[in-house]
Amino acid sequence: MAAVSQKDRNLLAVIGDEDSITGLLLAGIGNVDKEGTRRNFLVVDPKTEQSKIEEAFEEFTIERKDIAILLINQHVADRIRPTVDKYEQAFPALLEIPSKDHPYDPSKDSVLKRVQKLFGD
Questions:
Q1: Whether the Cβ atoms of residue 74 and residue 100 lie closer than 8 Å to each other
Q2: What is the DSSP annotation of 4-21?
Q3: Helix (H) or strand (E) run with residue 25 in it
Q4: Domains of the chain
Q5: Which pTM was predicted?
Q6: Per-residue pLDDT tens over the stretch 1-43
């Protein structure tokens, strides 16, 4: 397989609650392939199975080579925390974001924890 150039990564992907996804789609980040089967977002609700969230995370971080940044609501990332904490790739960049009902907690952010570890905090 040929190396993927960073310039080929031109999409945002989102795993989050309905309000976050709706807002980001209204901002224009939505992308659906020609067949209408492959999207760059997953709407998660309390009934969404953990395996489905993990599958989307794997698709956006490993399988797809057009994703530059993956945004994930922090409360959704908590549902798959071991998987999120193991992720160490530079691309796509992984950013945990707050949602309307769940404020951001820096102590849970996997990227921030790694940075603090590097600086010995």
A1: no
A2: PPGGG--EEEEEE-HHHH
A3: helix 18-26
A4: 6-118 (3.40.50.10580)
A5: 0.85
A6: 445 566 778 899 999 999 999 999 999 999 988 887 899 999 9
Distance CA 105, CA 109 (A): 7
Cis peptide before 92 (omega within 30 of 0): yes
* Residue pair 53/44 in contact by the 8 Å Cβ criterion: yes
Pairing state of beta strands 11-16 and 67-73? Answer: parallel
The first and second tokens of residue 69, run together, are 């940044």
CA 60 to chain centre: 7
Contacts of 88 (CB under 8 A, 6+ apart): 114
Nearest to 74 by CA among 115, 43, 106, 116: 106
For the segment 45-76, what is each residue's pLDDT rounded down to a tens digit?
999 999 999 999 999 999 999 999 999 999 99
Amino acid at 91: F
Q: Smallest Cα–Cα separation from 92: which of 76, 112, 70? A: 70
